């Protein structure tokens, strides 16, 4: 019974656009403009479903957990690709804090070459704040760059299927209305 209740609560959160509860909802809207150094990850992924992961490595324990999360993210990327979900962009934005910046090279070396990891500069506007995000959040955007899902803990644990299901939904459905950049999607059952 409790499992069914938990699933119903999770689905309600997913259908309402995720875990955002502060201020005006950014559901189905373009994110605020952000870039890291001279790169604009959202502009670079325009036309594809985009998954932005806000991850942080700070202590030895967190460092280990982040590495395992990166491995699971790569596993998810490969799984979806094998199931026919192509043209999905994955982006990891490391935390802006000093300890996270110090571990950036280690994180980048552990992540798949298919998933870029961006390191924020100390003096730039914090991307996490601009996106109203927190540690371990996943933001999933449609092909037109509109936010469809913002998943926070515990729904962002990759051992659960919330992130995967959200990606599939954004890939196959027009939750935010028609997108002129949507390519012909073959019918995929999940």
Automatic annotation (TrEMBL):
Subcellular location per the Swiss-Prot or TrEMBL entry: Secreted
GO cellular component, one term: extracellular region
GO molecular function: selenium binding
Signal peptide: 1-21
Gene Ontology biological process terms from the UniProt entry: selenium compound metabolic process
UniProt entry tagged with the keyword Ribosomal protein: no
Keywords: Glycoprotein, Secreted, Selenocysteine, Signal
Record domain Selenoprotein P N-terminal: where: 23-186
Predominant place of localization: secreted
The organism's place on the tree of life at top rank: Eukaryota
Entries under InterPro entries matching the protein: Selenoprotein-P_N, SeP
Name the record gives this protein: Selenoprotein P N-terminal domain-containing protein
Organism name: Moschus moschiferus
